[in-house]
Specification:
This protein is mainly β. The chain has one domain (20-237): Lipocalin. Helices cover 0% and strands 67% of the residues. The protein has no helices and 13 strands. A hairpin with a 5-residue loop joins strand 8 (139-151) and strand 9. It is globular, with a radius of gyration of 18 Å.
Length: 238
């Protein structure tokens, strides 16, 4: 069973013809802490994947529920709602062999369907490229390059670029378990622009051929990054 969680990267593999797979973040948390100030976003995320063919799948994802909480000194406020739908597909284009990686393209569009405060005003377009190398000894290497673009309030466009690497290993003594470490860079020209860098890792446990549990964490390394990203997940194949 190959999933597109946890962490920043996507697998190059599709789910397979006629397969339905759902992947849940239970929850996913973003945390900023500074002195007496705390900003926390907690989301329940969902991604549904359906295999049209062995190399093509349809994808539908969304933050089903999000709570934003701000605490500062004696001030404590929260707001909750559902977010926008992301509609897309994954197309596996190249099978890996030797030094050549598996390669897939993942285009999608974020549609403004969420509640006020949790939604974009106009559609946002995204394209990710996923690469994957199988290495000796149960090791693997994944790469991601992506760009996202949407309209700004003044009529112009903003862009966000992502680059990430993931090194993972299946544990030889317990092949149902695998661990990974990841490094991700995110830049954007939205507003005054920002550059976020994350370093983290996680663990995956294959309960059966059709059920996976996971946990992850990432530490923000720049002033513009959230201090921590972390969460738990469950994925099921039907």
């Amino acid at each position: 069973m190959m999933t597109d969680r946890p962490g920043f990267l996507f697998s190059s593999a599709t789910v397979g013809r006629g397969v339905f797979q759902i992947e849940l973040g239970l929850p996913s948390v973003s945390l900023i802490e500074e002195d007496d100030f705390e900003f926390r976003t907690t989301s329940l995320t969902a991604l549904a994947r359906y295999g049209v063919s062995d190399d093509l799948e349809l994808r539908l994802g969304a933050p089903v529920y999000t709570e934003v909480r701000v605490e500062f000194d004696r001030f404590d406020d929260s707001e909750s709602g559902y977010g926008d739908l992301e509609v897309g597909l994954k197309w596996h284009l190249i099978d890996g062999e030797g030094a050549r990686p598996d390669f897939a393209l993942i285009p999608s569009v974020i549609v403004p369907t969420g509640e006020d405060g949790f939604s974009v005003e106009d559609p946002v377009y995204q394209l990710n490229a996923a690469l994957e190398w199988s290495l000796a000894g149960g090791w693997g290497l994944m790469g991601l390059g992506g760009v996202l673009s949407g309209e700004e309030g003044d009529g112009g466009r903003f862009y966000q670029e992502t680059a990430a690497l993931n090194l993972w290993r299946t544990l030889p003594s317990s092949p149902d378990w695998s661990v990974f470490g990841e490094l991700a860079f995110i830049t954007t020209d939205l507003g005054d622009g920002a550059e976020s860098v994350f370093l983290g890792g996680g663990v995956e446990y294959l309960v059966s051929n059709d059920l996976q549990l996971d946990a992850f964490f990432d530490r923000g390394l720049t002033d513009e990054s959230p201090d921590w990203l972390f969460g738990l997940g469950l994925s099921a194949r039907f």
